[in-house]
Structures are given as C-alpha cells and as structure tokens.
Design brief:
Layout: H1 2-39, H2 42-61, H3 66-71, H4 86-95, H5 100-112, H6 119-129, H7 132-144, H8 148-161, H9 166-178, E1 186-189, E2 192-194, E3 199-201, E4 204-208, H10 209-215, E5 219-223, E6 228-233, E7 236-241, E8 246-249, E9 252-255, E10 261-263, E11 266-270, H11 271-277, E12 281-285, E13 290-294
Parallel strand pairs: 1-13
Antiparallel strand pairs: 1-2, 3-4, 4-11, 5-6, 6-7, 7-8, 8-9, 10-11, 12-13
Helix pairs in contact: 1-5, 4-5, 5-6, 5-7, 7-8, 8-9
C-alpha cells in the first residue's frame, strides 16, 4: 500500500519543486540572453544564428547516444528534456534526503527504475525511504493537504521504520484521532498494533496473555487445574498464576506486584514480566496511551 500514497505525494512534491526550478531557470535564462543580445552586433547575431542552424542539422542527422536513450523519457510534447525523469529524480533525492520529499522520491526511484540502479544506490535509497523522520515529515505534509487517512498509513510506516521511537507513536495517535479512529490504550508489538486493549491496574499495565505471547512468537499454554498460564520462547519459560503474586521464570520463584487475572473471559498478565523475561523491551508512551513492546535496544524510559 505504501506505493499508492508515496507516489501520490512524490508527484505533488516533485512537481512543486521542478515547477519552481524551471520557472527560476527560465526567467534567469531569458534575462541573461536579453543582456547578451543587447551587447551583440548585427554581425555577431548573424554568426550565432548560422552556428545554431549547423548545430541543429548535425544533431538531427546524428545517431541517438546512450545517454540520450537513458534519460529522455521525461521529454514533453515539444521534445524538451524535463526534470521528472530518472536523472532528475536522482538529483532531487540528493537534495531532499532529510526532507519529506526524500522518502517518497526514493520510493519512486526504487519502484519505477529498479533496473537502472546499482546495488549501492538501492541500499542508499532504501535507507532514505525507510527513514522514520522522513516518513513522519511526509505524513505531516499529507495531513496538511487534507489526506489524513493516507497520513495515518504513512505514519504507520514510520513506526515500523524505528519501533523504538516513542515520538512516532505520538504522531500516529494524532493522525488517527484526526481520521476519526478510536482512542484509548493500545498495544504495539514490534511496531504492529494489535486489537487487544490493555488495562491499567494500580500503575501496572496488563495485556491479553495470549495476544502478547503469540505476537512474540512464543508458545502459550493454560493449566485449568492450577489456573496457571505458561509462555515459552527460546529456552525461557514464564509461569504465572491467576490472582496470585507468585510467578516462576525457568523454575525460579519471582514476585510480581499485580497478579494475572481473568477479565471478561480473557487472561490478562503484567506486560513487563512477560516482555522482559522473553528478552523484549517494554515502554509506555503516555500521550498516546500506547504500550510498546519491541526487541531492539533503546535508551528511552521504561514502563
């Protein structure tokens, strides 16, 4: 889905940029030509005209060069080279790496001209396209232009680009509210939002046990006799008991402040205990009320 809104935004940005550049160059060129023309004598003008006619004739009868064949796909109906083709986009992305246009122009190059890019160019363009900052700026521009739903999709890409950046979750919440989406506590695991609303109990966040565990690719089990839930992943086993402050991590006793509980038929467990025991980071973003669980290191404040 990224291609739809990034290409749309790229067109808006590129057309805006190139229109301004073209207008400026055209105006500057005319002023320069007028000044030069005023200084020329009749003899000079005749010689210039003769040289131009010879040059045009030679060019007309010359075979097409490789560079022409590569870059003239952006010619307009007057057969003039434009700024929106492959070569123009390469120049544009160099000047917009840290701007909203950077991510979308990089995406346009990767999707429209993949066969012309070197492996090094592909790597660099993918880094630009996947920059969470550039994607967030692009989302802001979409929102400013009234494309709030597309801004939400773009910001979701920004979240996935850096799942540890809590600012991205704030922005996503802002755009989501503008798009009329429901608010409240949310659960994100590795950047993906899950339709399982967490709850807060005495300052401890509890999340649906099965949802959080399976999102981390862990095995889960329920022992109805003991009323215990167990999650296992990568050799680590966590066992919690409903309505009990005792827990076991790899068989070793562990005390928790808020026990697991059953709410409307769903087993809710302290997210910090499960997440950190399985090697994940667990953060709380208060403005968007987002529980953020991910497996990348960060210096952000913990939940």
């Amino acid at each position: 889905m990224r291609n739809t809104w990034t290409t749309l935004l790229a067109c808006i940005l590129v057309l805006g940029l190139t229109a301004g550049v073209a207008e400026a160059k055209q105006g500057h060129g005319k002023d320069h030509e007028n000044k030069q023309e005023a200084k020329m004598s009749d003899k000079d003008r005749n010689e210039k005209s003769s040289k131009k006619e010879k040059h045009d004739e030679i060019k007309k009868n010359s075979p097409v060069a490789v560079t022409d064949d590569t870059y003239v796909e952006s010619k307009d109906h007057h057969d003039r080279k434009g700024h929106n083709g492959y070569n123009g986009l390469l120049h544009a992305v160099e000047n917009t790496k840290d701007k909203p246009a950077g991510a979308v122009i990089a995406n346009l190059l990767l999707t429209k001209y993949p066969e012309r890019l070197t492996p090094e160019q592909v790597t660099e363009l993918e880094l630009i396209r996947n920059s969470d900052k550039a994607l967030t700026k692009a989302a802001e521009l979409l929102a400013e232009n009234g494309n709030v739903t597309d801004a939400v999709y773009m910001q979701e890409e920004a979240v996935l680009a850096d799942v540890s950046n809590l600012e991205s979750y704030k922005k996503l919440d802002v755009f989501s509210k503008k798009a009329g989406r429901s608010s409240g506590m949310k659960l994100f695991v590795n950047g993906k939002k899950y339709n399982a609303e967490p709850i807060n109990r005495n300052g401890t966040t509890l999340v649906p046990f099965r949802t959080a565990s399976e999102a981390l690719d862990a095995k889960v089990s329920w022992d109805p006799k003991e009323k215990a839930v167990t999650v296992t992943r990568n050799g680590v086993s966590v066992k919690l008991f409903v309505n009990s402050a005792k827990a076991y991590i790899n068989g070793q006793p562990y005390s928790i402040e808020q026990p697991a509980s059953i709410e409307d038929g769903t087993t809710m467990v302290p997210v910090r205990v499960i997440g950190e025991a399985l090697g994940a980071n667990v953060k709380w973003e208060p403005e968007s009320q987002s529980v953020v669980v991910y497996e990348q290191p960060t210096t952000s404040e913990a939940l």
